[in-house]
Amino acid sequence: MAGRDEEFDAELADRGDDRPGIDEADENDYSALDLLDPEADDANDDDDDTDEDDYDYPEDATEDDIDLVAALYREDGQPAATALDLELANDLDGLIEALRRVPGDAGAVGVVSIDSDFFVIVRVRGPKVELFLSDVSAALDWPIARDAADFLGVDLPDDDDDSEPVGDFDLFADAGLSEMELEAITTDDDADPLESLEAIVDKLGFAGVYDKVASGFGLEG
């Protein structure tokens, strides 16, 4: 019996174990690895998607790019305005949180203008957040516009030529600025974005206080 066992062991030693192990598996042959971790491919796909999204995300606007970051509100019924930190021009979530802390009688309105190219208006009233983006094509180039488009759930345009305002056109309907008026102001080809923003602010009764804050950013009324 011992002789047969020794003969069998010797035969195995000569033949070797020809079963491929994990170390021998071709890196392109994923079957062995996937048996150990069937979610590995999905995780790698997710990482690729994340990397692609990060690569596609616009770079922050610089101080020179930022025209204005301000909050408009009413205190004891009187219009008021205050400048906000420049960093909020690249951070929609941060802007919304900052507006929640403004002591307005009925919430606050945040306005951000970038590169005299587009503006974002955010109105915060308790848990309700309404948003308007003057040019959806800005989402291709600027973080605050990209965040605004994501917040609104609108698709990114194919190129910069797809220029149009998007968002809650009725966000000031209760304040005397109708949806049709807001659309007319923001689609006026003869007015640049800063002029359109000034027209909106004027319609809302904040022209005086807005001009004071705007002058602090070097903008002329």
Automatic annotation (TrEMBL):
Bias kind Basic and acidic residues: ranges: 12-22
Q: Which domain of life is it from?
A: Bacteria
Where do Acidic residues bias regions lie? 1-11, 36-62
Which stretches of sequence are listed as region Disordered?
A: 1-62
NCBIfam families linked to this entry: tRNA_deam_assoc
- Protein name, entry field: tRNA adenosine deaminase
